[in-house]
TrEMBL record:
Pfam families: GFO_IDH_MocA, GFO_IDH_MocA_C3
Designated name of the protein: Inositol 2-dehydrogenase
Occurrences of domain Gfo/Idh/MocA-like oxidoreductase N-terminal (ranges): 4-122
Assembly: Homotetramer.
SUPFAM superfamilies in alphabetical order: Glyceraldehyde-3-phosphate dehydrogenase-like, C-terminal domain (SSF55347), NAD(P)-binding Rossmann-fold domains (SSF51735)
GFO/IDH/MocA-like oxidoreductase domain mapped to chain residues: 130-244
Family from the record: Belongs to the Gfo/Idh/MocA family.
Function: Involved in the oxidation of myo-inositol (MI) to 2-keto-myo-inositol (2KMI or 2-inosose).
Alphabetical keyword list: NAD, Oxidoreductase, Plasmid
Primary gene name: iolG
Lineage: Bacteria, Pseudomonadati, Pseudomonadota, Alphaproteobacteria, Hyphomicrobiales
EC number: 1.1.1.18
Length: 341
């Protein structure tokens, strides 16, 4: 059976996902697209796909069985709620939503529906290197994880569109999610330090240094640099009681020329996580074909939203900002460290 998919938002990642859904993966057909920029939607539409005037029209179409949301974060809530109301599985790019209140409304709707329908685009969980790192930590041979050093560097970000809040509410959400998942832990508080500003980003608050306090007592430090120019560089190292486990340096062709011997660094997220995005969709397609979702959930999107909110408060206060989660609904699995009481 072929799953008929509609894509909302045909910008950078929408186009990349349409490419993988039409040229890489099987078991699906992109039957519809929409974007507030109708010309962009028409240009991105695969042959034979319908260009819908609005997300509502796409979601309610009888031809669309599942939805991929790649619009801007502030638009996600309305589109997710419409998918849940229609009972259609939705893959939603990060961030899930852009406020705690919005995250709670999506949780409430999905819990009332009674089955998981939403998968959030935290693609690092599908990356083979991160999966091997988690297997080592879960294996327990290195003892308990004590510290996680997470480095998140972008070569550049879209000028004018990427604001000073975004290192914390757009970029950090990946590190927040991967920390919770890798360490099987929950974030209970956040501190942020702002070092000397990089002259490459103009007035942008860049870089930032974030400290995540985990429920177990483990600490996570995150470097976010979004104008590092040399490439898209993602690193991670977990210090445990009797050893250290780290992401490997990615294999790349070794080039020897008059500049020396060197290996290329990915240019951006599309290249670094290409296999992870393919794999997250493979797993989503299986789940969505069964009318549900897998992997990062609305609950995980909610948790990352709380971290982003706390980080923004921490910049303003200069101190420690705590996080208080609601009790975890059973739909999202057993209680976590924080919600256990
Ligand atoms: N997982 C990742 O690594 C990753 C990478 C890039 C982007 N993203 C996320 O994907 C989303 C899109 O990012 P992008 O880089 O493609 O941005 P983009 O600006 O290139 O594209 C967004 C598109 O959505 C459209 N849009 C916005 N609001 C809409 C609405 N209400 N209805 C219909 N269309 C609407 C815009 O016109 C635009 O074409 C963001 O949430 C971003 O954080 C995730
Ligand atoms: O939307 C993008 C995307 O999520 C990337 O994975 C991240 O590295 C960028 O900082 C962010 O702006």
């Amino acid at each position: 059976m072929t799953l008929q998919i509609g894509v909302i938002g045909t910008g950078m990642i929408g186009q990349d996902h349409i490419r993988r859904l039409t040229k890489v993966l099987s078991g699906i057909e992109v039957v519809g697209v929409t974007d507030i920029d109708q010309a962009r939607a028409a240009a991105a539409a695969p042959e034979g796909a319908e260009v819908f005037a609005t997300p509502t029209a796409l979601i309610s179409s009888d031809n669309v069985q599942a939805v991929v949301i790649c619009s801007w974060g502030p638009a996600h809530e309305e589109q997710l709620l419409a998918c849940i109301a229609a009972g259609k599985p939705a893959f939603c790019e990060k961030p899930l939503v852009t406020s705690e209140a919005a995250a709670l409304r999506v949780i409430e709707a999905e819990v009332a529906f009674g089955r998981r329908l939403v998968q959030v685009g935290f693609m690092r969980r599908f990356d083979a290197d991160y999966r091997r790192l988690k297997a080592v930590i879960d294996g327990g041979k290195l003892g308990a994880p004590l510290m996680f050093h997470s480095v998140h560097r972008n070569a550049s970000v879209p000028e004018g569109l990427y604001t000073s809040e975004m290192p914390l509410n757009d970029t950090l959400v990946h590190d927040a999610d991967i920390s919770r998942w890798l360490l099987s832990d929950e974030v209970t508080g956040v501190e942020v330090r702002v070092p000397r500003r990089s002259s490459r980003g103009g007035e942008l608050r860049d870089p930032v240094f974030v400290l995540l306090h985990m429920a177990s007592g483990a600490l996570v430090d995150v470097e976010i640099s979004v104008n590092i120019s040399y490439g898209y560089d993602i690193r991670g190292e977990v210090s445990c009681e009797t050893g250290v486990a780290a992401l490997p340096t990615r294999p790349a062709a070794v080039i020897s020329d008059s500049n020396g011997i060197r290996q290329a660094i990915p240019e951006d997220w599309r290249e670094r996580f290409i296999e992870a995005y393919d794999q997250e969709f493979r797993e989503w397609i299986v789940a969505a074909s069964e009318g549900t979702a897998t992997g990062p959930s609305t609950w995980d999107g909610y948790a990352a939203t709380l971290v982003a909110d706390a980080a923004l408060r921490a910049v303003a206060s200069g101190g420690f900002e705590s996080i208080n989660m609601i009790a975890k609904p059973g739909l999202y699995g057993p209680p976590t460290a924080m919600a256990a009481e």
